[in-house]
Design brief:
With about 325 residues, this protein is an alpha/beta fold. The chain has 2 domains: about 5-50 and about 120-319, TIM Barrel, CATH 3.20.20.70; about 50-120, 2-Layer Sandwich (Alpha-Beta Plaits), CATH 3.30.70. The chain is built from 10 helices and 13 strands. β8 (about 145-150), α4 (about 160-170) and β9 (about 175-180) form a beta-alpha-beta unit.
Length: about 325
């Protein structure tokens, strides 16, 4: 299928990224994920559709505006309770969105000139994205960087991701694919020739615990990692350190054993300590959703877990 026909749902494009693979990169974030991790720092990535998002700090209140209330064809937006505006004693009535009525049509965003209401998720063709990233090729060449396709789970939009990676390689751009690994093995096989590096999540080695917390088991994830290694692919393993889920010495030791079994395919392991930066994002798009709130692991704890992995002869960094 031609590049001009295939479209993908993108929720963000970040230039000059230095955290998603080697060098200076552009990271393209696709919507849709089969997992539902309660610590997700990008909850706007989980749904496959465009979603109405609201940022309170941008809202000037219904007293001065309120145009969104009239613009909503479903009557989903109303005036909320008056609150004191941050940093002042001024009372302001923010809008209140009834998510049960909202169908994410986006009519309200067209009249919200402060940009408090916006649709998260925009359709792009492969060609549009290739044109966007190609202007940064000098930065990639100078730094050893490239383009990272992320999510959500990018392979939930498998055809689009395949065409995008293929187009990038045709332009001799280094590619990285950030993936949970929870996808049909045929999707892994399809993108392998066009992916220089897999940024691969390993959340918990116990499949039953993995399913309880994230919503899916881990057998397919581990099997796909083995397939990548056997095919000669390169893996940068990412391990989120989540309190009472993945932060036990036993889990990290099992993770180390598994990574060592993949041999030279594993070029790096990144430990990703839990943080709560995603909580405010949940509030932008959901009324009521289960979100993990916990104390971040201490530096001492992270160093202990790092040492366990290094004892397996693995190269480990903390992100």
């Amino acid at each position: 299928m031609s590049e001009s026909i295939v479209k993908g749902k993108v929720y963000d494009i970040q230039g000059f990224s230095v955290q998603d693979g080697p060098g200076i990169r552009t990271t393209i974030f696709l919507k849709g994920c089969p997992l539902s991790c309660p610590w997700c720092h990008s909850p706007e990535s989980q749904a496959f559709r465009s979603q109405l998002s609201w940022i309170s700090m941008r809202c000037i209140g219904v007293e001065q505006c309120g145009k969104c209330i009239k613009a909503c064809p479903k009557g989903a937006i109303k005036a909320g309770n008056a609150v004191k505006k941050s940093g002042t004693d001024e009372a302001i009535s923010y809008v209140s969105i009834d998510r049960s009525l909202c169908d994410d049509c986006g009519d309200c965003t067209k009249v919200c000139y402060p940009g408090a209401l916006y649709l998260c998720g925009e359709d792009y063709t492969v060609e549009e994205l290739l044109k966007r990233v190609s202007k940064d090729i000098p930065f990639y060449d100078e730094s050893g960087g490239g383009v990272t396709v992320s999510g959500g789970e990018a392979l939930s939009q498998a055809e689009f991701t395949f065409e995008l990676l293929k187009g990038l390689k045709e332009r001799k751009i280094h590619t990285a694919l950030d993936t949970t690994g929870f996808t049909d093995p045929k999707n892994i096989q399809q993108v392998l020739p066009y992916t220089d590096l897999f940024l691969y999540d390993l959340k918990n080695m116990d499949s039953s615990q993995h399913k309880i917390v994230t919503g899916v088991p881990n057998e397919r994830i581990l099997d796909n990692a083995r397939r990548i290694a056997e095919a000669g692919g390169k893996l940068q393993i990412r391990v989120p350190i989540i309190p009472n889920f993945s932060d036990s010495e036993e889990n990290i030791r099992l993770t180390g054993e598994f990574c060592r079994s993949l041999g030279d395919a594993v070029v790096l392991i990144q430990l990703l300590p839990y943080h709560d930066l995603g909580i405010v994002k949940y509030q932008r798009i959901y009324d009521d959703v289960k979100v993990l709130k916990a104390e971040p692991p201490s530096d001492e704890k992270i160093m202990e877990l790092k040492k366990i992995l290094e004892d397996f002869g693995l190269t480990v960094t903390v992100h």
